[in-house]
Amino acid sequence: MTHYKFWMVFAEGGQAPNKQHFVEAEAVAEAHRLAMKNGRPAYVLESMMGYEVPEPMVVKFATSEAQPVAA
User: Fold this and answer.
1) Dihedral Cα 25, 28, 34, 36, nearest 10 deg
2) Residue 56 lies in a domain
3) 14 found inside a domain
4) Which of 12, 17, 43, 65 is most buried as measured by Cβ atoms within 10 A of its Cβ?
């Protein structure tokens, strides 16, 4: 899976960011728009890294031909 850098906008007094902008200039324009509209600071947040949980591995294994005998 490819992981792309993205930017999000946080406006003070607003909701948590939920839109990813894959072009920095679009995030900057949105921050500017929100600051003008709300009269409050708006910040551009840049992704730096992330974490993920890999899918579980499926492993092939052999079985013995005979059932174990209790001693």
Assistant:
1) -100
2) no
3) yes
4) 17
Using alpha carbons, list the distances in angstroms from residue 70 to 4, 16, 55, 67: 57, 62, 38, 10
pLDDT tens digits for range 6-42 = 999 999 999 999 999 999 999 999 999 999 999 999 9
Residue ranges making up the domain that contains 42 = 7-46
Element (H, E) at 35: helix 24-38
Please give the full DSSP string across 17-33, using - where no structure is assigned: P---BSSHHHHHHHHHH
Does residue 28 lie within any of the structural domains? Answer: yes
Check residue 64 and give its pLDDT. 75
Q: How many separate domains does the chain show?
A: 1
30 is a domain residue? yes
Report residue 7 CA to chain centroid gap. Answer: 11
User: Letter for the amino acid at 65?
Assistant: E
